[in-house]
Amino acid sequence: METATRATELPGELRYIQYEHALEEQYLPAIRALISKDLSEPYSIYVYRYFLYQWAHLCYMVSILCSALSLGPNLDLECLLHIRRALHPDDGSLIGVIICKLEHHASHSPATHRGYIAMLAVSSAYRGHGIATALVKMAIDAMSDRNADEVVLETEETNTAAMRLYERLGFLRSKKLHRYYLNGNSAYRLVLLLKSSMRPPPPLLPLDSASAAAVTTGGGSATEDARPVSPTH
Amino acid sequence: MDDGFPPPPSMSHPGIVALDITDKFASAVKTLPPGQIVKDGHFTLFESVSALEIMDPKMDSGCLEEGESLDEEYDTARDLLPEEVLGIIDQLLCLEMAWHLGYPLSQTILTSVYVEALLRDPNAPLSSMTFLRDSASPAKQPKFLFVLRAYCAGMLRGCHCVNEVVKDELYYEEEDFVTNTYDRNFLSHIEMAEVIALLQATRADLRELSNDVPKDLALALDLRLELRIAFLRAMELFPLRKSNPDSLKMPWIQMKELMKHFKKQHALAKAVPEAFSTKMQRRLASTMPPRPIVHLSFDDTYTHFEQMFQDGKDAMDVLKYVDPQSLLHFVSTFQARNPQPLVFIRTMTQGLLFKDMIVLGHHSIRRILDDDLAIVVLPSARQLDPANDTIEVPTDPRHQLAVQMETFRQRAAECYLDLFRIFCQNRCRVRRTLCHSIQQWDHLQADVEEIDGLLQVCLDEKSLTTAMGNIGHSLPLSSWAYLYKLRQMEWIVQLGFELDVYQPDELAGMYWYLNYLAKTRAQHGDRIKTFVLREFTAAQESPSWSQTKERNFTRSIAYIRVTMLDAACTWEFADGLCCLYTVLQRLGLVKTPSRPYSNDEHRYEIRMKPFVNIGLPQLPSFDDFTKATAQPETSITELLKYAENAVGGAKKGYEALSRMNDLQTFSVGCHDRWLANIKGCQKSAIFAGLAITTLQKAIETEGENAADLKLKVELPQPGKGYHDWWIVPKLTPKIES
What we know:
Chain B: Its main location: cytoplasm. The complex is a heterodimer. Chain A is α+β, with helices and mostly antiparallel strands.
């Protein structure tokens, strides 16, 4: 499926970059410009900073460096300029970004170390080349290295491409969230479990002995999930 | 002002000591580079998402374009043609419906300059609410403005009622509906009768103007005023739950009829788009960024209103109470309508059910709960005899019974009533809330089993020995709780299918689990039946045997029969689909993604999370689940044979159910919806049977190699199958390219 859509080759070399806080001035405007394209309502700068201040290590960017070949033989200067200006918000050199967080999530019993993919965007001209998948993999690997129990996210119910991407990697839809987004669309919560928290149950009783005799169980009831991020707020 | 700063405000209050911190602040911010923020630990994601950037036109509602004025300059005293009045009214109808669908008032009704003008003074009497800024004499006002004024008053008072109905019941703010009025008073201080009188008078005045307005246009305006009256009448009537439900329906029927005319008349309207503006949002008590006006087409608006009025009418039938099982069927089938009734109807239904803790305006919660116990587990039982309450001697077993049963009711009432409320939520919430509810019922079952233990001593109940051996005591209360818990667990899985939560390669496993739950319910039903029949035999031999008792036992036995049949249908159909999907997976016709970051065990854990803490029925281990689903020792031919029989059995079961009447199926008052549901299941079973046959034939001629089968497997889009709970694959010959 994925390869079938790769009709054209990418016009340059991809460079995957880890976000660095010291370079906020260079990076953040480009990130905002890229992500805002896919949003009906803009996020304030605080939303970006909320994630990037605390989890810069879980943010990855992709830029494209135009190869001399694709620009033609006489455009060396242009190409050089392009590289120097890399990640300028207007020049389109930032083509993908993923922003995440990872923290202890206590409203569940037992509490989990929960990774959360807050934003993922790939410039529309570069979709279908596996760039988003690569970004998600990098983020999952980074969260996994930091001992995440699970990774969760929400995606719009109409965004079948995103759901396919995540589901191919192993995410499951755990619940549907009614009118989750400002535009009135519903969402799915997607979950990827990295570590098991379930104690193995004892062997199953034969069905015919099932009686009304109750087995008293411990374990409190799970409370509702908080709604971590959505453009609805 | 020469230094560019406004002067400090003059503060004179003994409690206020004003300090000018301008300099301190200015020097403090100099230490921050532009764009930097000071963040403390309390600045959470929620705060960051709610934060706005000043001077960003997409976030700052006060940010003006060059030359743009802050306020809307539309003059509400301007003259309007009658077709323009109609245009504004129809636009208001669209906005009102958008509000019902979940958009805030700030993006809908409150964008109207006329509404804003009318609500200027929150405490004004109706007579002085006008569109005119000065108190110009009514004679001077534009000719047709009075129609719009009355319409707006009726609409706003109606919206106030809707808001109150919604706020009184369980709904999810922002997710389902936005009740925020941004400090605007929607005529709450004015009696409905006064508004209705204004509308009536306006209709009469409009008739006086018949020479100045084309007839069809005058009629269109008149019918819109009539709609507002009918709506307010509906709001006046529905709290009178003791009245005849058919009379409560009248305004709803009337509104639906009126709506039919609206559709044709809309062509006469002339839109006045400048009478609506997002600038109105600046005056609202809100920190929200400016958001666009929601545009719903008139056709969509019409369709939604028509459905709303139909649903409102149908909701009144809930008051025709016969028995609690029919009531539960009524609520669950009503709410399963597609499209689901709007939140206003869903909350109104909750009000009809439970307002003031009086069920349906007549009954105590005890009555409903005892009725339910009498049907499900305790026909004509001594525990439920109201006379027990009159015994005051503590040593008398009847006193003990009364005390224990009251303890039970205290413990069970909330869980039980919640079931009805859960079904009045949006479908996603129904599933999510049921996941929590089963935990409550699991605890309830354990708790009331203790009461069962005490009661069986009072009643001197003997344990029962059958051909199967000793099957213990009847434990009616925990049996009752267990039955409800099992049914809810099935609903969770079934709603998972409805909401498209499962991926294609999960279907085999989820249908296996559904089959496991339904089978457990059928077996549990059988256990209840055994004890009810024991009581039946004993009661028949007793001198106090009566026709009433016979009726009660017959009703109970009928209930258990239909429950077991329903459970058996689910069990068989789910089993059949499990086998079919297992075969399709073995053949590679349903593909499994590579999933490099996951394994089967982890996904099982996510999937079964709602059930992992449930004591009974115990969650199958991953290995048991995998083996039961994949059935590695069974051949494809055998699996398909098995699927054919199971689906055939389900089909026959649904046929039998569809032939039963409303009394036998406990669907009194909702039999048409109940039957439509069964027919949908039956149709699904028929098509599942066809899919199995197609596959069997293809394998017979081409063998078990997927490539040779030349079959294409299609799963229906969500909501497009014959029944949302039965995902039946369609197998068609693959066209060679």
